[in-house]
Write a structure and sequence with these properties.
Elements: E1 2-3, H1 12-20, E2 37-40, H2 46-54, E3 59-62, H3 66-73, H4 84-89, E4 92-95, E5 106-109, H5 124-134, E6 142-145, H6 153-166, E7 175-178, E8 197-201, H7 204-215, E9 222-224, H8 228-259, H9 263-270, H10 292-302, H11 308-318, H12 320-334, E10 343-347, H13 363-372, E11 376-380, H14 386-393, E12 406-411, H15 416-419, H16 423-429, E13 430-438, H17 445-451, E14 455-457
Parallel strand pairs: 2-3, 2-5, 3-4, 5-6, 6-7, 8-9, 10-11, 10-12, 12-13, 13-14
Antiparallel strand pairs: 1-9, 7-8
Helix pairs in contact: 5-6, 8-10, 8-11, 12-13
This protein binds nicotinamide-adenine-dinucleotide.
Nicotinamide-adenine-dinucleotide binds next to helix 5.
């Protein structure tokens, strides 16, 4: 059911529940959403959520990372999702003291749900958050998970942990909800309040409250999912579908490369059909599209089903970095360059354009493959944090000025400063017969052809 906006008359059973819940004994009948909100995990997802609610009421913003709390207290958001002005305009108590969570009765959990090195779900941050919250839980509280999970985690895993820690009964004393997040880092158009929010609740009454709370800030409206598991599944399949569509494009790129035809040209021609979907090949990184399908496949395998199609797509997408680097080695050889010691520059390390997020960037596959050929590699990224790049990947980023006398230039991320590069600027970076790999297809191919510079694109 789609609910465009909150209206008290739409929730007749809600008042009864609110009155029955101890935390609402003082409910005055004016607003059904007089819930005090806490947000646990103030990252790319949690901070915009806290800020949206913090414009209407005081929000408890809890994060385990002291550094993050201190930065936010100083009005700095290193993820660049929220401006200093928006931070200043929102009323958030930034804290890493778990006891502050007891001041709230509607808790939103937005902690990371990554995969481990074996590509299995790593639920430790989520379980840690749930343990900490459980200790502060009171009768009448509602706990809504926003982190991406596989169906069943909220009710079958988190519920029992909360019960054990709080000594309260789930579904009687406190209640669960799940509301997946759909924000797209770096996208200033599709922001938290402008994306339809899928909501779910343990009971119809709780669903009404969850819908009302989110509906009070999400102007795009809420969609009431049939159950918590449905909402959990909806999130993972959104990203799984995207992953598979990109995998198809990547597979086509591998085929067209063997046919010596340009994939972008083919897609442009096919795209003139009304129902051809506009996906492109590329590196699938980040902690959503390249990660979430593994949550679904993990659960499917637990249930005895091997999801061939989803895992095939993952395999193809995970192999693209190596393919790009091998293409580069071929270009060097064609240009008559000695591979060992060739000067190779990679432009872009973050997982997507104009976003500082380095997590699970597949550019590292390109880098590692080049390193295995012992080229002289340098990596430049104008947005990535230098220290984080070193810590996360052991990559020492260089400044733009260091990109000189390059035998192979690999443009991996379409950051704004790179999209504006002219042929002359690129030529000034290259050595004689230097070549370019344009992974994102952002260079002017005709100009490069006229200028006699070898340009390959995925
Ligand atoms: N970033 C996205 O584009 C996006 C979009 C949709 C959904 N998601 C999902 O949302 C969830 C959060 O992702 P994110 O990108 O915001 O992650 P993030 O790493 O940017 O932020 C998570 C925050 O949680 C904190 N944290 C970690 N463990 C904690 C704990 N036990 N208690 C309290 N705080 C803790 C971290 O310090 C960090 O500040 C993930 O499940 C992710 O898959 C992310």
């Amino acid at each position: 059911m789609y609910v465009a906006s909150f209206n008290c008359r739409n929730f007749p059973r809600l008042k009864a529940l609110l009155v029955s819940l101890p935390s609402h004994k003082n409910y005055n009948g004016r607003s059904m959403i007089n819930r005090k909100i806490s947000v646990i995990g103030l990252g790319y997802v949690g901070l915009p959520v806290a800020v949206a609610f913090g414009k209407c009421q005081q929000v408890i913003g809890f994060d385990v990372k002291r550094e993050r709390i201190e930065e936010l207290q100083r009005g700095i958001d290193r993820t660049q999702e929220v401006s200093a002005q928006e931070l200043a305009e929102s009323n958030i108590l930034y804290t890493n003291n778990a006891k502050d969570l007891a001041k709230a009765d509607f808790h939103i959990i937005a902690v990371p749900t990554p995969i481990d090195r074996a590509r299995k779900p790593d639920l430790r941050p989520l379980y840690r958050a749930v343990h900490v919250l459980g200790n502060q839980l009171k009768k009448g509280d509602i706990v809504v998970i926003e982190s991406t999970v596989y169906p069943g985690i909220t009710e079958e895993e988190c519920g029992p942990i909360l019960e054990a820690e709080s000594r309260l009964t789930c579904g009687e004393d406190f209640f669960l909800g799940y509301s997946p997040e759909r924000i797209n880092p770096g996208d200033k158009e599709h922001t938290f309040t402008k994306i339809t929010k899928v909501v779910s609740g343990q009971t119809p009454e709780v669903l009404d409250i969850v819908a009302a709370v989110y509906g009070s800030v999400v102007t795009a409206g809420v969609h009431k999912a049939a159950s918590i598991k449905v909402a959990e599944a909806a999130k993972v399949i959104e990203n799984t579908q995207r992953d598979l569509n990109i995998a198809l494009m990547n597979e086509l790129a591998l085929v067209f490369d063997r046919l010596d035809i340009d994939t972008q040209d083919v897609l442009q021609a096919a795209g003139t059909k009304w129902n051809f979907l506009p996906f492109k090949p590329g590196l699938v990184g980040g902690h959503c599209i390249g990660v979430d399908p593994y949550y679904l496949t993990y659960k499917a395998e637990m249930l005895g089903y091997h999801p061939d199609v989803i895992l095939a797509g993952r395999r193809i997408n995970d192999g693209v970095g190596e393919f790009i680097a091998h293409k580069g080695i071929l270009e060097l050889t064609r240009a008559g360059k000695c591979v060992k010691g060739a000067r190779v520059a990679v432009l872009g390390l973050t997982f997507k354009e104009n976003c500082p997020d380095l997590r699970n960037s597949r550019v590292i596959d390109v880098i590692n493959t080049f390193n295995s050929f012992e080229v002289e590699l340098m990596v430049h990224d104008p947005i990535a944090d230098v220290e984080e790049a070193r810590m996360e990947y052991g990559v020492d980023l260089v400044g733009f000025d260091a990109i000189k006398d390059i035998d192979l230039l690999v443009i991996t991320v379409a950051h704004e400063p790179f999209t504006g590069l002219s042929l002359a600027e690129v030529q000034s970076m290259l050595s004689p017969r230097g070549a370019v790999l344009d992974v994102k297809g952002i260079m002017d191919r005709d100009a490069f052809a006229r200028g006699g510079v070898s340009l390959w694109r995925l």
